[in-house]
Amino acid sequence: MNWVAWRMLTGDRAKYLGTIFGVAFGTLLIAQQTSIFVGLMSRTASQILDIREASIWVMRPEVQNADEIKPLGENDVYRVRGVPGVSWAVRFYKGLARARVSDGSFRQVMLMGLDDDTLVGAPTEMLLGSLKELRHPDAIIIDKAGYSYLWPDQPLSLGKTLEMNDQRAIVVGICKASPPFQTFPVVYSRYTQAMEFVTQERNRMSFVLAEPDGATSTAEACRQIEAQTGLLAMSRLDFVWRTVGYYLRSTGIPVNFGITIALGFIVGTAIAGQTFYLFTLENLRQFGALKAMGLSNGRLILMVLLQATIVGCIGFGIGVGLTALFFEATKNVTHLAGFYLPWQVVALSAAAVSLIVVLASFVSARKVLFLEPAEVFRA
Asked: Which of 338, 294, 345, 288 is nearest to 316 (CA)?
């Protein structure tokens, strides 16, 4: 009977391909929009994710995300270093600065001030130049996307200058960095150098980056830091989720993308369900003939499920393949850099498509269950 079900499904090529297109389109909408949403949310914490040397971030208790920062005092780094269980702790600056290039144009840049001695937080992938050049006066490293924003249509080269807070900055390196949420250029410099690129304030240190010693867990070290300094200490992953959670709660992004994903699900369900239902209606004569030949309702339902599963698997494969192709084709586009298709989204899309197939099968199977063979032959 499986062969009969297959022949019934593929007998009309146009309807067969139309049903597959409906499932593929629904899968494409769900997987692509969900991946964009996940990528956009991960951008809010991209600079935290990029710094892998330190597992503990220390900040003011009032800080809700990585972009709205209440500065720490310069002595706080020494207080953290004195906490038992902390192996090392360094200063780290993260903030915005206005950068002006030689033609007078300017942009806000995300300035990252790295500890002078250790350069903890430095980019891990250099495209031009080297990290050691950062120790020279006025030296900065800029990410590739930021370079393209500041000097559009120009090839990557070192030695270009820009001005921040009336101070000259020389590009000694170009790196690859995760794009931030606001798409600002990402600029790295030494901590003391970064203090010259920003306006004067009494306190300017954004975070203390720390690492527990081998005998102390990250969670225990965070508790010790909080108990002894009164500051907020979080693991790197907890700070990522704190930042992502803030943007989920405080912006309309989740609602807008949720609506788009829901529309994709509804449209995909409607197209696939309607097409598959019409397919079943047009094959009622064949189902009625099989029923008159003694085939049980259970066997007929299995045939419908088999047809729906075939359509679902092929449509899902095409939809996910097109989504992966989209991200592969746009991976070098600056505005879309960093977006990809996570395996979790593939699993979620598979669950959604399975639900679509089950719903379509249920609607179609009802017609077969209550089919009277005599009515088919009378028609």
From this structure: 345
Distance CA 17, CA 29 (A): 18
Q: Provide the pLDDT for residue 310.
A: 86
Per-residue pLDDT, 292: 74
Cα–Cα–Cα angle for 289, 294, 297, rounded to 5 degrees: 85
Sequence-ordered list of residues with C-beta below 8 angstroms from that of 54, at least 6 positions apart, any chain: 90, 120, 121, 209, 210, 211, 236
As a whole number of angstroms, the distance between CA 369 and CA 31 comes to: 34
Residues 147 and 337 sit within 8 Å (Cβ to Cβ): no
The stretch 306-335 carries a mean pLDDT of: 86
In the chain, the amino acid numbered 350 is A
pLDDT on residue 200? 78
d(C-alpha 206, C-alpha 204), whole Å: 6
Q: Tell me the pTM.
A: 0.77
For residues 165 and 108, give the distance between their C-alpha atoms in angstroms, rounded to a whole number: 12
CA angle 306, 310, 316 (to 5 degrees): 140
70/63 Cα distance (integer angstroms): 6
What whole-number distance in Å separates Cα of residue 1 and Cα of residue 300?
9
